[in-house]
Design brief:
By secondary structure, the chain is of the alpha/beta class. The chain contains twelve helices and 20 strands. Helix content is 32%, strand content 27%. The two termini are 20 Å apart.
């Protein structure tokens, strides 16, 4: 059967999606897709990962200021196969394997006009209320936000472009290069992709800090030069700073806080050399009490990131050339069934040895 005939046959089947309907309640139910516009493509989802924000929505019906007020299709880390193209689409064809950038910006506001479209106040982002996500049989998405994958990059790796983009954007914002000594607070999925990105950007030495021995062991296997087991107690910061300095054996140029708590940010600010940078990536607390004045007196720059922009081509190139290998991060796989969707979110919620939980549709 030709791809065209296969697409026509599947058009007759009902599209299904994982809907978040209440706290810790997901149901696979029908999902009517928007009409395919001239610049859109229809994509059959093949790989969808679970992000920490998905887990927050699942457990609390909110993530930061984004509140789920009505049933919503969840998910945004995704890749699939093109099944239909809009009348004006020339860059993609039926059968192409693509990774999807999940946010659609307005293109008109000041942020969009100056190229910082990730800060668009009208951003429509997969699986961020009120926009439906991508844990579905099929989705419709703008063609310019679907990036063709080379033959040697799998669909699972394509789905990993989304979390990897966070690390790449953080490294770009921090100007990571071959002389940058890097500290990373937090060895969860985002801390780990930030480590991989920093290494690809040339960072010669990277030290990771976490409260979980299992995750630090994983970071070591992925290539961390040093790991520090920390506590949750703020009074232990000074002792841990000594351990961090000993592990680095040099001044720390850039620290990434991939957690976002009083303690992790305090550690990052104190560990970073005068004139260095601290990049806040994690958003664990909406408000913090941190020693900002002493850091400012040492001209430590504090920068933040929100998602990413213009990262997919570089992600794909890093994967294609083998500069970054995200495959070891995928620790658990599930199918797209009611039972497996529930199991997958339970597994991701527990953390521990679950780094990236992936659906194969």
């Amino acid at each position: 059967m030709s791809l065209k005939n296969k697409a026509e046959e599947d058009d007759g089947k009902e599209n299904m999606a994982a809907w978040l309907v209440a706290v810790e309640t997901l149901r696979i139910q029908p999902y009517t897709l928007p009409i395919l516009g001239p610049h859109d493509v229809k994509v059959r989802m093949k790989a969808v990962g679970i992000c920490g924000s998905d887990v927050h929505h699942f457990k609390h019906m909110r993530c930061a200021n984004f509140v789920v007020k009505k049933p919503m299709v969840i998910g945004h880390e995704c890749a699939g196969v093109i099944e239909e193209v809009g009348s004006q689409v020339t860059s993609l064809a039926i059968g192409d394997h693509v990774a999807l950038e999940p946010g659609i910006s307005c293109g008109r506001c000041n942020s969009c006009r100056v190229g910082r479209y990730n800060l668009c106040p009208e951003m429509k982002f997969f699986g961020s209320p009120p926009t439906n996500g991508s844990l579905a049989t099929q989705v419709v998405h703008p063609a310019n936000l679907c990036f063709k994958l080379p033959d040697n990059v799998s669909l699972e790796e394509g789905a990993m472009c989304e979390p990897l983009s966070v690390g790449i954007h953080a490294c770009r914002r921090s100007n990571i290069g071959p002389e940058t000594k890097v500290l990373i607070m937090g060895a969860g999925p985002i801390g780990l992709v930030t480590m991989l990105a920093a290494r690809a950007f040339g960072a010669p030495k990277i030290v990771m800090v976490d409260i979980d021995e299992c995750r630090l062991s994983f970071a070591k296997k992925l290539g961390a030069d040093g790991t520090i087991l920390a506590s949750t107690k703020i009074e232990n910061v000074q002792d841990e700073l000594t351990q961090i300095q000993n592990a680095m054996g040099a001044c720390i140029d850039v620290s990434f806080d991939c957690v976002g708590l009083d303690k992790t940010m305090t550690t990052a600010l104190n560990a970073t050399r005068s004139g260095g940078k601290v990049c806040l990536v994690g958003l664990g607390q909406s408000q913090m009490s941190i020693p900002l004045t002493p850091a400012a007196a040492r001209e430590v720059d504090v920068i933040g990131i929100f998602r990413y922009r213009n990262t997919w081509p570089l992600c794909i190139d890093f994967l294609r050339t083998g500069k970054i290998d995200v495959k070891p991060l995928i620790t658990h796989r599930f199918s797209f069934s009611q039972q497996d969707v529930e199991k997958a979110f339970e597994t991701s919620s527990r953390g521990g040895n679950a780094i990236k939980v992936m659906f194969n549709l």
